[in-house]
Amino acid sequence: MKAGTSDEEWREDCAPRRVLELFATKWTSMILHVLHVRLNGAARTGVLQRSLPGVSKKMLTQTLREMENTGLVTRHVQGTVPPAVEYRLTPLGTRFIEPIELLYAWGRSNSDALNELGSRPTSRR
């Protein structure tokens, strides 16, 4: 692969692939959206789970850990008994809000086209 070639643009660590990796699960963008739009950028795990119908506690925890590792959210443990854990958007997580909201707005305005795609075995409506 030569520098400056079209092959170089699509290498394994290229920006488009890295963006798609962030959204490998459907819950990443939904968590960012809910934290920003409905929860003012921060929420405890239980509040997040109630705000995201269909997500299991295990999947939410797993996704939040991945998001923390990538720098999209931070985890804050309060010294209460039992410990209260709150997740907050980071500046990086906040930067991802704009493209997510554009994508969600496109989905809402093109729901008829999405409905024509038919349902997938793994999707719930």
Give the uncertain stretches in residue-range form.
none
Broad shape:
globular
H/E series, N to C?
HHHEHHEEHHH
CATH domain class of the domain at 25-108: Mainly Alpha
Strand order of the largest sheet: 1-3-2
Classify the fold: give the CATH topology of the domain at 25-108.
Arc Repressor Mutant, subunit A
What is the oligomeric state here? single chain
Largest sheet: 3 strands, antiparallel
CATH architecture level-2 label of the domain at 25-108? Orthogonal Bundle
Protein name: Transcriptional regulator
Keywords: DNA-binding, Transcription, Transcription regulation
GO molecular function: DNA binding
Domain HTH hxlR-type: 14-115
